[in-house]
Specification:
Elements lengths: L2 H18 L3 H17 L1 H8 L5 H12 L5 H12 L6 H15 L2 E8 L5 H15 L2 E8 L7 E5 L2 E4 L2 H16 L1
Parallel strand pairs: 1-2
Antiparallel strand pairs: 1-3, 3-4
Helix pairs in contact: 1-6, 2-6, 4-5
Length: about 180
């Protein structure tokens, strides 16, 4: 089974159990803290991914680091991952969990790149337009990309909406090249 499929299955199982058991908020906070610790520790990343570190050792490592900082149910999940030799997927499981939680709550994450900084009103109008178009609540991450010349691009999942001047120029160039042949 691929790591992406396994990560999604573990994340989905955790989400369903946490939602059914009314401890979803606690688990969500725990996973956010776990992700921050993993991201900040190269040694922990190596230990979790190393095939030389056995499942029991990984379980002890996770318990020593997170035991007093997460709820019992989250700790049981971490030990389960280690026992099933899936501790190397912990970071991916957390990412999948967050994606599934967003999907469950009707959120989509959008990466918006614009040639110039959008005003608050422009950003709000763009987010509202995307919400209407998708039927979901949009959580937008705005950034600048001066190579766009003008306009903006929006990436939501696998979909890219390109309203940039550079893209329009490329389309015009293709159109003119096709007519010349």
């Amino acid at each position: 089974m691929s790591s992406a499929i396994a990560s999604r299955r573990y994340a989905l199982a955790l989400l369903e159990v946490a939602a059914d058991g009314n401890f979803l908020e606690t688990v969500t906070e725990d996973l956010q803290n776990i992700q921050e610790v993993i991201s900040g520790s190269h040694d922990l990343q190596l230990a979790l991914k190393s095939p030389l570190v056995k499942g029991d050792a990984k379980s002890r490592i996770l318990e020593n680091i997170f035991g007093s900082h997460v709820c019992d149910k989250t700790m049981v999940f971490l030990k389960l991952l280690a026992h099933k030799k899936r501790a190397n997927l912990l970071s991916e499981v957390v990412t999948e969990f967050n994606s599934l939680l967003d999907e469950r709550n009707g959120y989509l994450n959008a990466d918006v790149k614009s040639a110039v900084k959008l005003s608050d009103e422009q950003a709000r109008e763009l987010v509202n337009g995307l919400s209407v178009r998708t039927g979901k609540k949009i959580r937008a991450k705005m950034s600048l990309d001066e190579s766009l010349i003008g306009g903006f691009t929006v990436k939501i999942g696998d979909t890219i909406l390109d309203g940039s001047v550079s893209h329009q120029l490329q389309l015009l160039k293709k159109s003119l090249s096709a007519e010349a042949v």
